[in-house]
Amino acid sequence: MRGRRFLPRGRRAWVSAAAGAALVLVAGLVLFLWPDPSYRAIEGDCDRSELLVAGGTDVSLKNQRRALIRQWNESRYPGGRPHPHATLVEVSESTDLQHSQLKAVQESGGCAYDVLIMDNTWTAQFAGGGYLRPLDDIENRDDFFPAALRTGEYDGEQYAVPFNVDVGLLYHWEGVTPPAAWPGLLSADVAMQLADYEGLTVNALEAVWNDGAAGRLTGAGRPDEDDLRDAVYPALTRLAPRAHGSLAPSRQYGELESIEAFASGTKLMRNWPYAFSVLASEPRMRDGTRLRFGVTALPGRTVLGGQNLAVSRFSPNPEDAADLVAFLSGTGSQRLLFSCGGFAPGRYSALGLSPGRSSPADVGVRTCSSLTGEPLGPGETDVPDAAQLTQLGRAVVTALGRAEPRPVTPHYSTFSGTFRGCVQKIFDQAGTDAGTFARAIERSLDGRTASC
Q1: How far is CA 11 from the centre of its chain?
Q2: Where does the chain cross the membrane (predicted)?
Q3: Whole-number Cα distances in Å, 67 to 324, 333, 336, 351
Q4: CA-CA distance, 144 to 139, in Å (whole number)?
Q5: Residue 2 contacts by C-beta under 8 Å, 6 or more apart in sequence?
Q6: Taking CA 17 as the corner, what is the angle to CA 117 and CA 94, rounded to the nearest 5 degrees?
């Protein structure tokens, strides 16, 4: 694509250079990095003391995930013993390829990795397959947002903890009043993610939940054919005319494209929390230190996404790996991940909250420079600043109260692919009837191949 481009999440990592008082992403001032991947082939060295952390490409602002790994390497246990050295292994830029690679390694029983950074929909498959160790001693367990912590549970055991959470947020240009209800959003000038990838599953589920099918296709509950035929299918058929009208451009949008559309003038955008820092760093979206956009929770229900940390069952250093998981999911790391990295944290305390004091109005956060102690240069300011981070934190907390997980099944990837295919056929008016849709989705939840 010609002209200015935002850097895609899950495709490339990036570093932005500061110019004057703002971070800028314009050509010539932005360094686009295709990081030299630290991916290594499956190894048989099970006697190593080094900890290998496997996940996708680090696209957090300022590569904050790598910064946290460096912080672990430079710090020590309370008694003075050095932490074992850890390395972030960037498996793939594609979420689908991350899943395939990590699954292949774990299925092989190889000891290539110690800590896994996983999409929270993978817990059931990886735990059910015997690939993960239960996490028995979780520090300050009650400090995690409960819904986010539950995404790491399977069959009554805790196998993973939140690294970052994702919830659907509504971005709006200044002067634009965000709609208070779901129908108003669908009829507005809004950018969503309806291209053929996981974003279509997410956006379609949100549409279904907010149009007569609440409680279906979420969590461990299984909808029967009647639910799928009489509630889910009609909601999708009602969405189809929008896919040919106000939402037609969004059928070509992933996260990157929707951010670009919003920055180019589309009045509203549904996206994850990380988009806030990306937009705040864009000169078109700023007037000096003031942002030209705002953010709120989506009106209605939203998908609870995010990534979790887990210890591989085959790690040769399981105790050290569990310590690293505790470090990365601890309050200090979570604060840095939010203020410096742009990702929403999994703990109340990272937003200045507690389980008994969790109102959005109580959110209190610090800037990146105040957390790191690194001085700003002459004329530089934190981007985002404390007030802007507070606005984001309040939107995240509000959305968490309305967030629902995607279906919990060891066969989630089969479900998602089938669901997306069916949604596209419904959008295209390709003759998919309610019964065919219901049978295909029900089969996919059991891992059986099906299509509409």
Answers
A1: 14
A2: 12-34
A3: 14, 10, 9, 20
A4: 10
A5: none
A6: 30
CA distance from start to end of the chain: 33
Whole-Å CA distances, 310 to 115, 135, 155, 204, 314 = 6, 8, 16, 28, 12
Q: What token pair was written down for 439? A: 């049978």
Count CA atoms within 13 Å of residue 89 on its CB side: 23
Which is it for the CA torsion 113, 116, 119, 123, positive or negative? positive
Helix (H) or strand (E) holding 126: helix 123-128
Q: Please provide residue 68's backbone torsions phi and psi, each rounded to the nearest 5 degrees.
A: -65, -40
Cβ-contact 152, 161 below 8 angstroms: yes
CB 207 within 8 A of CB 337: no
In 411-430, which positions are buried (b, 16+ CB within 10 angstroms) versus exposed (e)? bbbbbbbbbbbbbbbbbeee
**In what side-by-side order are the strands of the sheet with 268-271?**
190-191, 268-271, 169-173, 293-297
Phi and psi torsions of 74, nearest 5°: -90, -5
- Residue 346, token pair as written in the block: 């999994």
> Contacts by 360-363 with C-beta closer than 8 Å and gap 24+?
360/393, 360/394, 360/395, 360/397, 360/398, 361/394, 363/390, 363/393, 363/394, 363/397
Q: Which CATH class is domain 167-301+404-409+420-432?
A: alpha beta
Give start and end residues of each alpha helix (H) in 244-316.
Answer: 255-263, 274-280
Domain boundaries, the chain: 51-166+303-377, 167-301+404-409+420-432
Q: How many other CB atoms are found less than 10 A from the CB of residue 63?
A: 21
Q: Domain 51-166+303-377 sits in which CATH superfamily?
A: Periplasmic binding protein-like II (3.40.190.10)
